Every structure is written in structure tokens, then in C-alpha cells.
Amino acid sequence: MIPKLDASVIITCFNKEEFLDECVASVKRQSRQPKEVILIHDACDKPMAHATAHTIILPQNVGVSMARDVGVRYSSGKLILFVDGDDVLSPDYLEKMALTIHDGADIAYPDLFVWQGDESYLSISPLSITVKTLKKFGKLPIPVTSLMYRSVYDNLGGFKEMRVLEDLDFFVRALCKGYTMKKAHTLLWYRRYEGTRNNQDLSMRKKVLSQIMEQLS
């Protein structure tokens, strides 16, 4: 039997129950299984428990940052993988992520297949991300669905409570602290659709983005 990875998969869900079965199934079919799967329902309208996950139902909506923090506090793995409830992982996702971590990265991230109706596309991530490359491109085209050491999360104090771009802020702070970020050669199936936070008011997103990038100066 292949030993389980010392990793906690933390799935957060807010009214994405229609996609949740597919998300959890993609974790269940991983070539390397995690130590545990923790599912946080952030006051969903129709929360559901899963036999393969420790399910926590929050009575009030606290937002994605605090929901992830709840998951971390209930978890015990040396490594942490954050997953949104509408994500789907390729079968080798955890295995390839862990190999990248063991090769010397503090945070491993994937390539993306973005589901967006007729405008779906493949997004190839850079092999590594540094402060220099981030300053050059002015954005960080990777998802929160990245594997990291628990110590990275703890040392950064987790995600800040922000309406948008809390994942970008987290990764920028990680780079500023000297943590290394490298690509794992695997694929995340990432949904984007009308009403997601990524499609919210552009002027507000630009303002938040500017504030985050100021940390690099």
C-alpha cells in the first residue's frame, strides 16, 4: 500500500454545493492520498456531509479567509492544500505537488485549465515565481489551490480578511519573507463564471491590487 502524504486538504465551500461532489471525488481519486480531508461549509444554503471528509458547518458566513483558518485549526498535516468547493484536481495533483515541495519549494502551484463556457482555455504557469518576476509582470497567475508547508501559513498569520485577492496578498507576503514558489507539473480544473469573486467590480479589484503590490517596493 502506498503511504499517505502528511498533508491536510482543506476544502471551503460557500453555496457551491452543486459542484462539491465532483470536487471531493477528485480528491478521493488521487494517486497519493492525503492524511485527511476537511470540508468547511461557510453557512451554505444546502450543506452536505461527505463520508471521505471531516465536515464542519459554520452557522454564520465568515468569509473565505476565516473559513480556511478554521480548517487549518482542525487539521494536523505538515503540508496544507487549500481547495475551493468548485475546483477539480487532476489525479496526480497531490503527488506532483509533494514532489515539487520535496525538491526544495516552500509552495507548489499548478497549471490551470480555466472553465469559462465557450471561452475555456489552458493557462501555463511560470516555472518559478520570485519578487523580481512579480514586479515585472505585475500579477500572480496562480490559484490558492497550492500546496505549502503548515509553517509557511503559520508564519504569515494566514490569509487576511479581504473582499478579493486575499490569495494574491498571501503569496506576495510569502515572497517578501523569502519563501520559494515553484510549479508542479500537474493541472487544476478551475471554474470561472458570472458571479464569482474574480468577476467582481474591476475598479475595486484594481485598487486592492495596487495596495498589495506596494508591499514589493
Question: Helical proportion?
Answer: 25-40%
The SS-based structural class is: alpha/beta
CATH superfamily: Spore Coat Polysaccharide Biosynthesis Protein SpsA, Chain A
Give me the number of helical elements: 7
User: What is the mean predicted local confidence, pLDDT?
Assistant: 90
**Number of DSSP E strands:** 10
CATH topology: Spore Coat Polysaccharide Biosynthesis Protein SpsA, Chain A
CATH architectural category: Alpha-Beta Complex
Are there runs of 5+ residues with pLDDT below 50, and where? none
Give the strand content: 25-35%
End-to-end gap: 49 Å
In N-to-C order, the SSE pattern is EHEEHEEHEEEHEHHEH
* Principal-axis shape: globular
Explained architecture:
With 217 residues, the chain is of the alpha/beta class. It has one domain (5-216): Alpha-Beta Complex (Spore Coat Polysaccharide Biosynthesis Protein SpsA, Chain A). It is 32% helix and 27% strand. The protein is built from 7 helices and 10 strands. The chain has helices at 17-28, 64-74, 93-102, 131-137, 150-156, 166-176, 202-213, and strands at 5-13, 34-42, 54-58, 79-84, 88-89, 107-115, 121-123, 128-129, 147-149, 181-191. Strands 1, 2, 3, 4, 5, 6, 7, 8, 9 and 10 form a 10-stranded mixed sheet that branches. Helix 1 (17-28) links the parallel strand 1 (5-13) and strand 2 (34-42). The longest helix is centred in the N-terminal third of the chain and has 12 residues, at 17-28. The chain is globular. The N and C termini lie far apart (49 Å). 38% of the residues are buried. The model has no long low-confidence stretch (mean pLDDT 90).
